[in-house]
Amino acid sequence: MPQLRTALAQNFNQAVNQIRPSAIREFDQQISDIDGIIKLTLGQPDFNVPEHVKEAAVRSINENHSGYTPQRGIPELRQAISDYLLQTTSVRYSPESEIVVTVGASEAIMSSLAAILNPGDKVIVPTPAFPLYFAAVELNQATVIPIDTSADEFVLTPEKLQAVLDEEPRVKAIILNYPNNPTGIEYTEQELVTLANVLKNHDIYVIADEIYNELTYGVTHHSIAALLPEQTIVINGLSKSHSMTGYRLGYFAAPADFVTKASKVHAFWVTCPSNPAQYAALEALTNGLQDAAVMRTAYEERLTYIKAEFRKMGFQIGQTTGAFYLFAGIPPTFNGDSTTFALALAKSAKVGVIPGAAFGPGGERYIRVSYASSLRDLQTAVKRISTFLKTNTSNTLEEVNK
């Protein structure tokens, strides 16, 4: 096996040296070898891709759609995205000049940030937040300005936003993710209005990651793009709404001047998304807009169940109304940090969750529980966690983890 020359081993991009691997994936891998573990760790829907969507991908292969596509995506898909966004954001985006199809929503975020950030720029990220945002900003030699929302029921307040903008002259963008990963919090229309009233007075980009927009329970999703179309970059995809995580199909939509710049980054990084994924997405957005309803009903049932059960066990539970995560405050009878608790839970109870510390300021003393798993698995996990809480104390957590 080749060994890298010693001098080269010290010669990497410093931005890469400074970022950590995904704390979510790192912890998930750490506990994956535990025999019999039920993993409620990743945001991987347990539903199959709808049959008609899979058939569209196969049809694309059989019809020899094997060449390069237009770098911004096939025209039919961009039109379908435009139609969908008109329904969900009330903004009409031109399929020719204001939409780019990407390799997953992650690439949409990376391309967008790379197009706007210069060394020394700053990006506001309300926390707890998906760790990708921190790494994406830092890879572009910019700085994350976290705003801890834990004292405000995990909702960014206009007062805290205004205070940061007053103090930080080099803020280039804010990343808003809602429904939120990891908290499951969805912003109300009025909450978005109050934030928009602050943001409209500042020349900054609003990156709205709305990948979970189809998964809300008892509330309606509203896009901040409807309030600030001239500032907003909408990020979305098919991973969560149609269980197409492995297809890696996302997109961004924004004013044409921005898209012209960001599409250059996208084109040099990935050239274009794959044909089968694009034709599958076209089918999903043309004939499968109701596909998410079946999943949404099941997720809501699971959420109702685990919220009640976790509260009985002494966890602190907020007003979770979206995505498929429960962000649960560790019972006060247990001392120590979230990683110690989650690791002991995995080893002793054989239930895998993600420590809240993985999601930045405000996440400590919480765990993220993914209910993108069967109700049967959730019921078994609840029984195991209940037994774990009754038979362990703070003093035994360290012993379990040895």
TrEMBL record:
Aminotransferase class I/classII large domain sequence ranges: 37-385
Its EC number(s): 2.6.1.-
Cofactor: pyridoxal 5'-phosphate
Domain of life: Bacteria
Entry annotated with the keyword Transferase: yes
Molecular function, one GO term: transaminase activity
UniProtKB keywords: Aminotransferase, Pyridoxal phosphate, Transferase
One record GO biological process: amino acid metabolic process
Listed Pfam families: Aminotran_1_2 (PF00155)
InterPro entries in UniProt: Aminotransferase_I/II_large (IPR004839), AspAT/PAT-like (IPR050596), NHTrfase_class1_PyrdxlP-BS (IPR004838), PyrdxlP-dep_Trfase (IPR015424), PyrdxlP-dep_Trfase_major (IPR015421), PyrdxlP-dep_Trfase_small (IPR015422)
Family under the similarity heading: Belongs to the class-I pyridoxal-phosphate-dependent aminotransferase family.
UniProt protein name: Aminotransferase
Organism, scientific name: Amylolactobacillus amylotrophicus DSM 20534
